[in-house]
Amino acid sequence: QVQLAESGGGSVQAGGSLRLSCAASSYPYSTTCLGWFSQAPGKEREGVAAIYTHDGATVYRNAVKGRFTISLDNAKNTVYLQMNSLKPEDTAMYYCAAGWRCSRSKSDYGYWGQGTQVTVSS
Prior knowledge:
Elements: E1 4-7, E2 10-13, E3 18-24, E4 33-39, E5 46-52, E6 58-60, E7 68-73, E8 78-83, E9 92-99, E10 109-112, E11 116-121
Parallel strand pairs: 2-11
Antiparallel strand pairs: 1-3, 3-8, 4-5, 4-9, 5-6, 7-8, 9-10, 9-11
């Protein structure tokens, strides 16, 4: 079975940067997308960014465009999320996921990591 493991979370002041990593053991043949989701207490888990595994095309939530960059290293089976100009509202648990469609809906993803916490202070 595919396993996803996130790392790179932590605490940072507003305006700072973090790079999240998600290492995958392997991907099922049906996997065409790797994505990042965020979830804060009292809020639904929502899509942040995603990348298609076959061509590297990307999609972002409007609130992070220009600040976050998702990338994929196929040789290492690792997807990254570079987060710059962080804001307090970015504070959340971040999860990586593997799915069949690069959408913002968690229902399009069948495999999830355990999450890594990102905390941004003002």
